[in-house]
Description:
This protein has helices spanning 2-21, 28-51, 58-79, 95-116, 123-145, 152-174, 183-205, 213-222, 228-246, 251-280. By secondary structure, it is mainly alpha-helical. It has three domains: 1-51, no CATH class; 56-146, no CATH class; 149-283, no CATH class. α3 (58-79) packs parallel to α5 (123-145) and α7 (183-205) runs parallel beside α10. The protein starts with a helix and ends with a helix.
Amino acid sequence: MTSLIDKISQFVSTYYVDPIIYDSGYNPVNTITWALVLGICIFGVLMLLERIKVTIDERFIFSVIPFVVAGSSLRVIEDAGMFRPPVQYLFITPTIYFVVFAVTALCLLVSRWLKNAGKVKDFHATFASFGIVWFVANILVLLYVENIIHPFVPFLILSSGTLITFLVYRLTDYSGFALFSNRLNLSIMWVHLLDASSTIVGIDMLGYYEKHVIPAYLIDLTGTAIVMYPLKLAIFLPILYLLDTQFDEDDKSQTLKTFVKMVIIVLGLSPACRNTIRMTLGI
């Protein structure tokens, strides 16, 4: 019995605990686990939003964006070594997602309360303002303790990601494939191509390395991070097509579809912002 417990303990430490403590990245086991946890959390958050009567639409999604970039900048604060164990472990992926979610949910609840109390007219603007203040505070902290080392990084990432997005949009539009006539779909592709661009700049130009299992394998196989562009397109073009064609037209199905798109935006924008800020500061 003791041997079995030791084996389980070693398994948990190797695949879950150590990657967080040592920030060593992902492995096949924890990658699958966190994906399953994400799926469960999606339905939990949907129930919460329904309970507090929040409509999941484009306006709500764009009001969440400031919290995504705030969370990314908070992760860079950890990268800069400003936290010490055990507090540090709260700000390493994936635990930081729960921390950021808790703060975001609290700000949403406060915003809804202010709206219901008649103190504000639009809870979306109030909610987004909380995230903007948080993001600006994080950036000021980073600029106070760090210097801008690579000022060209944001320009390279934004210009290359935007250019590839434009080319994909023009190509699909020319072929009569109207997938990106939807602004939300175009936003998804843009943030994920920004993420790809940040990986290319980091690995091919500045000597960083990839922590995720599949991208790391493909980068090692091809010898360049440029493989991230076709990888992103190969994943998200079919996903967006399925989301837009396989969901029913009833309100619940459309709500679920929009929420899934919001999650996809978060999964692309979060690492793109973190990578950009981190490389700009040379961390």
